[in-house]
Amino acid sequence: MEKKRVEGRATIDQDTANTLIRRIADLSLAMDKMNIAEYVEFLRNPRRIIYVNFLGGLARGFGIGIGATVLAAVFLLVLSRLVQLNLPVIGRFIAEIVRIVSDHLKVR
After folding, report:
1. Cα 14 off chain centre by
2. pLDDT class of 5 with cuts at 50, 70, 90
3. CA-CA distance, 8 to 69, in Å (whole number)?
4. Distance CA 80, CA 74 (A)
5. CB 49 within 8 A of CB 43
6. CA distances (Å), 15 to each of 23, 32, 77, in order?
7. What values do phi and psi take at 16, rounded to 5?
8. Residue 4 pLDDT exceeds 70
């Protein structure tokens, strides 16, 4: 094993040096694949962070609104179908809920 001697520093053999060089190259390649440089640049720009978070919040809010509307519509559709089955106790309860919702929608 050939060791390199640097004055005042520890010695390292050639195999260890090659292993370190190879691992550093692998790490560099992995960082390039993960776009670390772009991410760091993104973090250095507070306006861009605020803009991206604002747009993300708008999208989440819009999605929640649409999802809740669809879910409520499906729920009311199921309830109205149950009323049509004319179940004695459940039917009156569901009919009252559907009537309240319908009245509320007519007011708006």
Report:
1. 46
2. low
3. 72
4. 10
5. yes
6. 12, 26, 72
7. -65, -40
8. no
